[in-house]
Amino acid sequence: MAKRPASSFDSAIDEITSDGGNITVIAPVAHLARDHRGLNIIDAHVVCHDKADFVREISRLSSDISSRYIEIGRYLIEAKDRLGHGEFEPMIEAELPFGARQAQRLMVVAKAIDDGIFPRDQLPPSHSTVYELVSLKAEERERAIEEGVVNPEVTREDVIAFRKLVRGDRGPRPLTSPGAINSRIRKLEAQRESINAEIARLHALLR
């Protein structure tokens, strides 16, 4: 498969995961209200003026991280942009209920979801699984969508297995999760309908 130029999202991941560079400030309130996945993204965004504000809001949301991880990631991106490394990294290590590695992943996931690199209604609820999906290369993400890997029931293990398979270039991955199997069935049924219609058209020409 031919390599494609890095997307703007891939460049953004490099910015988030590197020591230098500024991070785009989180989406405005109007965008937060348009999250269609039902992940409890609240409309109101509390404006944080200093480190204490960020610590308070991120800590509050972290008590329900499984459904509020997008908000947490957005606050982290904003904090990194406003505070700088001198305050941001010590804040994570000393004052937040998770470490630097998880903070980095939450930022990457939030950035990816806001950029819309996957259909939101097809993403699984686990932020660790979403992280594995968004960490795929651009061409791998396209293939993941085509093969039905991106679905609400996919597991982290499924995504890791898919990545190993495509990077080894050993052909289509075996389908294991119900979501992936159902997605593949729908694609094949659509192809069958198209083929049957073409066969009927050709038979009509022979009459």
Automatic annotation (TrEMBL):
Naturally occurring in which organism (per UniProt): Paramagnetospirillum kuznetsovii
Organism taxonomic ancestry: Bacteria, Pseudomonadati, Pseudomonadota, Alphaproteobacteria, Rhodospirillales
Superkingdom of source: Bacteria
Protein name: DUF3102 domain-containing protein
InterPro entries from the UniProt entry: DUF3102
